[in-house]
Amino acid sequence: MPLGLRRKKNKSRESSNLVENEEVGGQAGGSSVKSTVNGAGLPPPPANLRPKLVFHTQLAHGSPTGRIEGFTNVKELYGKIAETFNLSPPEIMFCTLNTHKIDMEKLLGGQIGLEDFIFAHIKGIKKEVEVFKSEDALGLTITDNGAGYAFIKRIKEGSVVDNVKVISVGDHIDCINGKSIVGTRHYEVARMLKELPKDQTFTLKLVEPMKAFEMLEPRSKGAKPASENKMGTGRGTLRLRAKGPATVEEVPTEFEEKAVKKVDDLLESYMGIRDTELAATMVEVGRDKKNPDEFAMALDEALGDFAFPDEFVFDVWGAIGDAKQGRF
């Protein structure tokens, strides 16, 4: 971090908490959680009288509609979906909100509207491809599903990978040169790909999401900017955090949306990843910090498993400041 700040190496972040439990403002594991619907500060109503958070879900390639509730993190969410459709949880690659299409800007990520519909994309065709790395940059942006699968979120037009037509947005990267990367975080996968030697061939094993016949369409280079694909159709949203319980909040403010979008762009530029949850966490950390050093220390404490370049930290600090001043 800037000015020689100590880089702490915490344990890898666990999957993002989605719901503390199935109750709004309820309790989980005996821990008290403030109610988000009782603004007067009165004690929350008994558990059996509190509303449950129930979500509707379908398999993206086609299925009946199921109902899921009572999950506390991404892995449990996948487990609930798998149970509903009689699947094995590892078959689920990622989920999108309110669309069955492979739309990388509508991934279930940092926020989910209370009325959002969850579509689960499951494993389809496996494929293996050899790629000649003719340039330092492959033109890939990587993200992950919070449960051990890294996959392709964007392919830059005209890049090395764009010329390999069998590789598509949404493909899960299973192996690099025969080494399994299941369970590896997306920023580590991006680093591994960047470090592959230039002017040599490497092998990727990929798994593409299953598609219904009517969904088949030309390969996507990515998706529209996040600002054009706002998630959260409900009156409130679940704010998903890497650490600590999720909370039910109002829809994001204009400042939050602009700041998160800019920080997510910086993540792609510096690290080759996109992660709206991570971007939202960084915006939240920097909201009340008075200077870059204070911000850097807070980032180190909150996200010690990421080794952020100093220039990136200062640019993020500047982006948050620009959003506060309405300069976007």
Automatic annotation (TrEMBL):
Residues 1-48 are annotated as: Disordered. CDD domains: GH2_GIPC (cd21180), PDZ_GIPC2 (cd23078). It comes from the Eukaryota. Residues 1-11 have a biased composition (Basic residues). Residues 128-208 form the PDZ domain. InterPro entries: GH2_GIPC, GIPC1-3_GH1, GIPC1/2/3, PDZ, PDZ_sf. Belongs to the GIPC family. PANTHER family: PDZ DOMAIN-CONTAINING PROTEIN GIPC2, RGS-GAIP INTERACTING PROTEIN GIPC. This is PDZ domain-containing protein.
